[in-house]
Amino acid sequence: MEKAGCRLYVFNPDCELAIADGGRFYMPPANIVRMAEDLAYLPAYLGEEGDGVLVPRAVPCGFNGELGVPVRPVMEGELADGGEGWHAEPWGRSPRMCHWLAARGMGEEWQEGWKEAYSRRTALGVLLHLREELPFVGGEVVPVVCHSLAEVHRHAGRGNWIVKAPWSSSGKGQLRLGHPFYPKADEWMGGVLKRQGYLMLERHLDKVADFAMEFQAVGGKVEFIGWSCFETGEHGEYLGNRVAPQEVLEAELRGFLDSRWLLALKSCLPPALQEAFPGYEGYLGVDMLVYRGEGGEMRLHPCVEINLRCNMGILALRLQERYLAPGAEGYFSVRFYPRGGEALAHCLQEGSRMPAVFRNNRLLGGFLPLAPVEADSCFVAALHARR
Prior knowledge:
By secondary structure, the protein is α+β, with helices and mostly antiparallel strands. The protein is 28% helix and 29% strand. The chain contains 10 helices and 17 strands.
């Protein structure tokens, strides 16, 4: 057994879904279960010497040995005597994950009072605080809380809107409303209202770019750790992150936004987050976007959602700091391949086309899968790097 206090990282991408369900024995959808299994190794890049990462099966000997990742894979069977000696670091907390940890002596059971902290209504409170502090934030970014279908129809009668479930993230639990509403829209919204109690109605903005501010809460203090520039798909689903030095990412953002706005965000957000999430410890991120105003000018939405957990942007940040060679930039992506063998074939093809090149245990260029890819894998997380 490792020395007491070593961190055991656990990848559980079902956080918000499990919180919305509320049950200790919640079972995620099959595709989320598969993601958790295929990408279980990902948190290893967050850890340090002596830490472990929980994996469902043995990791191939020498996997990504060129990077010298100091975190060792640990299978659940090795925790048969409980989690003694480990400090659990799940991707995010939920009733399901907290129960799993508590049963192994690595944490406490979920407290019902925590649920509201993870809701979009709490993120709305942070957004309203930012509107008071930052004069450049427009009122069009403020969502409407709707407790009935009648309210949704009344507010969404004109313009383009997106409706979101209170507990959801990363493109899940949201619907673009057409005019007239799609036949299934009322059915979907009615189901969310029944399960979660309300809906968030947001204007569809003319998006130019997605980005985020990443933070870490330690000892009651929230500290900014970096910018994250990422891409999403047509339905808001996560596609990937730029992996580049912070000065490069910030310069890119300054190409869209006044540098004074970025400084104001660094000043205003940490205390706002400390007030909204007292007692929270760990990573968190605030998703934002640049959009075009009615006159074509660049505008800022400073709080699209808050991820009260680790996220892919934080992972990209750590990859750049620890595993990307100086002078190199990259792109971290997560892709889904539904047919058997397709994910492995893709990795073999990309590895042949762009072989990975290393310098001093850091990736200098080429294609590198960041989690083992087997014949039956469906999800691939990979880093493409270039000089």
